[in-house]
Amino acid sequence: MELEADVVVPAGADGVVLFAHGSGSSRHSPRNRSVASELQRGGLATVLADLLTPEEEALDASTGELRFDVDLLTARVIGLADRIAADARIGGLPLGLFGASTGAAGALAAAAARPDTVRAVVSRGGRPDLAGDFLPLVRQPTLLVVGELDRVVLELNVEASRQLGGPVRLAVVPGATHLFEEAGALELVAGLAREWFVAHLTVRDG
Q1: Mean pLDDT, rounded, of the chain
Q2: Is the pLDDT at 29 greater than 80, yes or no?
Q3: What φ, ψ does residue 22 adopt, rounded to 5°?
Q4: Residue 168 falls within a domain, yes or no?
Q5: Adjacent-strand bridge partners of 143
Q6: Average pLDDT for 167-173
Q7: Contact residues for 112 (Cβ-Cβ < 8 A; gap 6+)
Q8: 91-128: pLDDT as tens digits
Q9: Quick one: which of 13, 19, 110, 174 could link to 45 by a disulfide (CB 3.0–4.6 Å)?
Q10: What's the rounded Cα separation, in Å, for the pair 92 and 133?
Q11: Nearest-angstrom CA–CA distance, 202 and 130
Q12: What is the full DSSP assignment across the chain?
């Protein structure tokens, strides 16, 4: 099985971030591509990969079942993380995971499964609660970014922040809803993610 991915490696990259999409999204998500561009400006390589094959995406579009299959998403993120580790261009760089919506659960579970590979995690409007028993096993620094008006997801993130096993920061974006469509909201998310990954993914720190 092959998964499609877009890889960008800035000159002198200090780390690499793998994006884990969820809830029917893909590597073409304009929101994640916007965040990826900001990370690239911060000197980080980015890997935007589809977690589902085209056939699975077609099935999910009609049923919505695969986007909540956390075991499947986790397995795909782990597989991609292992591929990155073996890649000649970026395999030597510290790895971070950026998870959105249900993809955040897959990213956190993958971080628990690969403690020596994954160095940091960022969740954007994520569902970390779906990672369940994996949360206490996540020892990596984790940033949870949630919109102030995304009240149900905010409550789920507050509870998840209490269960995570490593350093955690909960950042609430004022006036933002689930998709951060409000003016300046996504830019704030991108800036927070860049600061988090730059702080925790540098070859010099390793």
Answers
A1: 90
A2: no
A3: -155, 180
A4: yes
A5: 122, 169
A6: 98
A7: 131, 134, 135, 137, 138
A8: 999 999 999 989 999 999 999 999 999 999 999 999 99
A9: 13
A10: 30
A11: 29
A12: ----EEEE--TT--EEEEEE--TT--TT-HHHHHHHHHHHHTTEEEEEE-SS-HHHHHHHHHH--GGG-HHHHHHHHHHHHHHHHT-TTTTTS-EEEEEETTHHHHHHHHHHH-TTTEEEEEEES--GGGGGGGGGG--S-EEEEEETT-HHHHHHHHHHHHH-SS-EEEEEETT--TT--STTHHHHHHHHHHHHHHHH--TTT-
Cross-strand pairs, 142: 121, 168
Q: Is residue 186 part of a domain?
A: yes
Q: How far is residue 61's CA from residue 8's CA, in Å, rounded to a whole number?
A: 28
**Does residue 206 lie in a domain region?**
no
| pLDDT given for residue 49 in this prediction | 87
Residue 21 sits in a domain whose CATH number is 3.40.50.1820
Say which range, 6-15, 52-61, 162-171, has the weakest mean pLDDT. 52-61
Question: According to the model, what pLDDT value does residue 58 have?
Answer: 75
Domain range holding 118?
Answer: 5-200
Tell me: pLDDT of 149 over 50: yes
